[in-house]
Design goal:
With 391 residues, this protein is of the alpha/beta class. 31% of the residues lie in helices and 17% in strands. The chain is built from 11 helices and 16 strands. A 9-stranded mixed β-sheet has the order 2-3-1-6-7-8-13-14-11, with helices on both faces. The protein has a 3-stranded antiparallel β-sheet with strand order 10-9-12, with no helix packed on it. The protein has a two-stranded antiparallel ribbon with strand order 4-5. The protein is globular and about 100 Å long.
Length: 391
């Protein structure tokens, strides 16, 4: 049989339709996911130590954390408070109670087992099936716990909440001043003081303040401030004076030094007072930054390995623009712009498979300080007198 001699530039005598799909939508920002670490010695037997566990509701939580009904450990009561206050996705990591307070705290801080490589304590936040937006270890309030919470918050892009010392205002301010080292995530720490009292089943219990702030933060969107969210309690462990027009109150002192607090307001009852982290960043700004950065990271995995064609790069910019404009439409942010960096996208970077996308956005600030300027306007008086005299 003779060899075939096809026409090399011939492909089809007919019609071919090729479709080009745009990049998929990036979707909305994540909803609140809380992860708490603590002790529950009466947990049910099937619940594994040092493993993030999803709790679905109050009943499920109590059966999981408190098989005897004695409310032993740091988790059962704070989980009850959280579920009674807000509906949110909640994970807990239960650690073992140590021989003393220091040993228990070491279990909460956790780390990596040198023999097995297993992760323990706060390190398990990184293994949570749903990435948390808020983390805390209610009732544990040493500097070491705060440092670990901050590092995890930095790595996971979530907001850490830490209890203050619950002694006096100066101690709380000094405690907050001990955090803030560059690059450690400590600028994201939300520190709250004092603790509060809550009656459960006829018994008044001292509750760590962090669970009140966690609940307040979980009850609003991640880009909103927890200021003025109510705290369901009998009273605070010490009274915190607050007046809306007084710069010398205890609440103002604590806020000025990076401590969120709980105080009685003219609205009635107790409320969260404070918009800022320990270094002065707005809590809402930190939450927005976390959520946006996480969305960029999580939606970029399918793009890796694609050819860096002009069409592909423009599609990615268009996708970012559509996402940003949706955030603007939802009033999450006021402005947004995505574009290719004009100078960094050079030959050196391109040939290394590296390219730069700029995501510029604005952000809303919380209403922290309202200033009313009252002025007597004699012109208004003159017009009024003219109307009275002349009709």
């Amino acid at each position: 049989m003779s060899s075939l001699a096809p026409i090399q530039d011939f492909e089809l005598n007919g019609v071919e339709v090729r479709t080009i799909e745009p990049q998929p939508s990036m979707g909305p920002l994540a909803q609140q996911v809380v992860h708490l670490i603590g002790t529950a010695p009466d947990k049910r037997g099937t619940m594994v130590y040092n493993e993030p566990t999803r709790l679905w509701n109050y009943a499920d939580a109590m059966m999981a954390l408190d098989s005897t009904g004695n409310r032993q450990g740091s988790l059962p009561t704070v989980v009850r408070y959280l579920f009674e206050y807000v509906k949110c996705a909640l994970y807990v990591t239960v650690v073992e109670v140590g021989a003393n307070t220091a040993a228990t705290e070491a279990n909460v801080i956790g780390g990596v087992d040198s023999a097995t490589g297993a992760i323990r304590g706060l390190e398990t936040v990184k293994a949570c099936p749903e990435t948390p937006t808020i983390i805390a270890a209610p009732g544990f309030h040493s500097k070491a716990v705060g440092q670990k919470l901050a590092l995890i918050g930095r790595d996971v892009r979530c907001r850490p909440v830490l209890d203050g010392p619950n002694t006096n205002d100066m101690a709380a301010a000094e405690f907050a001043a001990g955090f803030g080292a560059e690059g450690t995530g400590e600028d994201k720490l939300c520190i709250i003081d004092p603790w509060f009292l809550k009656t459960y089943d006829g018994v008044q219990v001292l509750m760590p303040a962090s669970i009140a702030l966690v609940a307040a933060m979980a009850s609003v969107s991640g880009w909103e401030s927890p200021q003025n969210r109510s705290v369901v309690c009998d009273e605070t462990a010490r009274n915190i004076a607050y007046k809306i027009n007084d710069k010398t109150t205890q609440a103002n002192f604590l806020n000025k030094h990076g401590v969120v607090t709980i105080a009685h307001t003219r609205m009635g009852g107790y409320s969260i007072i404070g918009n800022r982290t320990n270094t002065g960043r707005f809590i809402s700004h930190v939450g927005l930054e976390d959520l946006m950065a996480r969305k960029l990271e999580e939606t970029s995995q399918p793009l890796l390995g694609k050819q860096l064609t002009e069409e592909f790069m423009q599609q990615v910019v268009d996708r970012l623009t559509n996402w940003g404009q949706d955030l603007v439409a939802q009033t999450v942010i006021p402005v947004f712009k995505a574009f290719l960096h004009p100078t960094k996208n050079n030959l050196e970077n391109y040939t290394a498979g590296r390219w730069f996308l700029c995501v510029n956005y604005g952000r809303y600030s919380p209403n922290e300080h309202m200033v009313y300027e009252m002025s007597v306007d004699n012109g208004l008086i003159a017009a009024w007198l003219d109307e009275v005299v002349n009709g």
